[in-house]
């Protein structure tokens, strides 16, 4: 009987509890919003972007010294109204060409 009470209580918590996750549509994020988001959020966005591009581009084999984040920040400072995904693709394209 106690087991069923616990299961019922847990189910009630799941149903009643509001979702705590927030969603972010990266297709609408600008460089200005990226730069204003703070260092911790910028790091999370960079990790997401690297995963996003890894799923779309066949091979991205850069070492940690490629300074992708710094290049993205520099590009975003120069182009604050640019789309973040487009800016990231530009940086990766430059890295592919050896620039």
Describe the overall structure:
With 99 residues, the chain is an all-alpha fold. 64% of the residues lie in helices and 0% in strands. The protein is built from 5 helices and no strands. Helix 4 crosses helix 5. The chain is globular, with a radius of gyration of 20 Å. The termini are far apart. The model has no long low-confidence stretch (mean pLDDT 75).
Topology:
Blueprint: H1 2-16, H2 31-36, H3 39-56, H4 68-78, H5 84-96
Gist of the model:
By secondary structure, the chain is mainly alpha-helical. The chain has helices at residues 2-16, 31-36, 39-56, 68-78, 84-96.
Q: In DSSP terms, counting alpha (H) and pi (I) runs of 4 or more, how many helices?
A: 5
Strand content is under 5%
What's the overall average pLDDT, rounded? Answer: 75
Number of separate strands: 0
Task: Give me the oligomer status.
Answer: single chain
Residue windows where pLDDT falls under 50 for at least 5 positions = none
Biggest pleated-sheet summary: none
- Summarize the amount of helix as a percent range: 55-70%
Class of secondary structure makeup: mainly alpha
- Termini distance? 68 Å
What global shape is seen? Answer: globular
Global Rg: 20 Å
Helix and strand sequence: HHHHH
Features:
single chain, 99 residues, mainly alpha, 5 helices, 64% helix, 0% strand
């Amino acid at each position: 009987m106690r087991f069923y009470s616990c299961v019922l209580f847990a189910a009630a918590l799941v149903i009643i509890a509001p979702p705590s996750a927030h969603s972010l549509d990266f297709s609408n994020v600008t460089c200005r919003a990226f730069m204003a988001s703070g260092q911790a959020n910028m790091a999370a966005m960079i990790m997401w972007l690297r995963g996003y591009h890894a799923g779309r581009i066949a091979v991205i084999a850069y070492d940690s010294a490629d300074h992708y984040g710094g290049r993205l920040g520099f590009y975003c400072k120069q182009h604050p109204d640019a789309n973040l995904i487009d800016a990231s693709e530009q940086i990766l394209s430059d890295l592919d060409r050896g620039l």
